[in-house]
Structure formats: C-alpha cells, structure tokens
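To make the argument concrete, we let one protein speak, a sequence paired with a row of structure tokens, as a model reads it:
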Amino acid sequence: MWSAFYLTGVLASLIASVYFSIHARRQGIHPLASRMTLGKMNIALGVLVTLFGLNQFTFEALDAVRIVVALVMLLVGIINLYLGTRNYLRYRTAWLAETKKGA
C-alpha cells in the first residue's frame, strides 16, 4: 500500500514540478503569474522531498545516519511546502487585485 502511494506521489509531484518550472519561465507571461506558478512548483517540490524523507523510515535497518538524513529531508520538504504555499497565496491575491483594478 505504501509503495503505491509513494510511487504515485513521487511521479505526480515530479511531473508537476517540471511542468510548473517550464510554464513559469515562458516568454510573455505576466510576472505575478510567473511567481504564482513558481509557488506551485515549490509546493510540488516540497511534497517530493517530504515523500523522500518519509520513505527513509520504511527501510528495515534504521541507523543514525539514515534517521538524520530523513529528518533533514522532512524539514526541508515541509519548509518548502510552507513557503511555496505562502508565496502562491500572496501572489494570487496580488494577481486578483491587479486583474480587478485593470478590468
């Protein structure tokens, strides 16, 4: 069960992060829309790194190095998820305000 969830999550977040990265760097895209898309990319990368960290705890032989690496990956993934969500919401609010003002 865990392997199906893990593999699906890793593939989905990897594909999403590559898609959002390419989409945000297109020519002619509005800067706020680009930053909003980069926030989505950071969310996808946060999920990916968090899943990598969680996967370290599924191995039989848990030694100190594996636990430290897993905790660092979890910390980095959660921070990336938090900051990506914060940036996405901040730029989405600015984007909506600008589109209302311009319309």
Notes: The chain has a mean pLDDT of 91. The helical segments are 2-24, 31-56, 64-102. Residues 64-102 form the longest helix (39 residues). The CA atoms of residues 31 and 45 lie 21 Å apart.
